[in-house]
Amino acid sequence: MVNTGTLVRDYTCVTFSKNSEDFLFAGTSSGDLIGFLVKNKVLVFSFNVCAMGVKTVKSVSADKIIVGGGDGQVSLFKVNGKDTSLVQRIQIFGAIHGLSVSPDGL
Q1: Is residue 56 packed enough to be buried (19+ CB in 10 Å), middle (13-18) or exposed (0-12)?
Q2: Average of pLDDT values for 62-80?
Q3: What are the residues whose beta carbons fall under 8 Å from the beta carbon of 106, sequence distance 6 or more?
Q4: Helix-then-strand count for the chain, H and E
Q5: What is 11-91's CATH number?
Q6: How many C-beta neighbours within 10 Å does residue 50 have?
Q7: Cα separation, 71 vs 45, whole angstroms
Q8: 3-state secondary structure of 36
């Protein structure tokens, strides 16, 4: 069980970080992206990513994840523990229900 404090969330999608599985990333119905450190079972970061809920989360590489939202936003994050940051965001017409990553990470 992971302690998220007083926050109660409805998780819609999850994925592990590539290769080492150090992190578990989860999207919520409220549009948040949550990062947990697996080894210590600790919540490391939380970002409000989109409206209408996070629909899909995918690991691109060991330090990058991509998030698709119900409002059509696709966001790329660089993962660095508590210093995780948004790298790029684009808006697409319609909800993003699935993402896939090619073998070369592009």
Answers
A1: buried
A2: 93
A3: none
A4: 0, 8
A5: 2.40.10.480
A6: 26
A7: 22
A8: strand
Using alpha carbons, list the distances in angstroms from residue 52 to 72, 73, 87, 90. Answer: 9, 10, 21, 16
Give pTM, 2 decimals. Answer: 0.86
DSSP one-letter string for 62-101: TTEEEEEETTSEEEEEE-BTBT-EEEEEEE-SS-------
Place of tokens 């989860």: 26
Question: Is pLDDT above 80 for 64?
Answer: yes
Round the CA-based radius of gyration of the chain to a whole number and report it.
Answer: 13
How many CA atoms are closer than 13 Å to the CA of 1, on its beta-carbon side? 2
Tokens of 76: 């790329």
Give dist(CA 94, CA 105) in Å, integer. 24
Please give the pLDDT value at position 1: 52
pLDDT of residue 81: 85
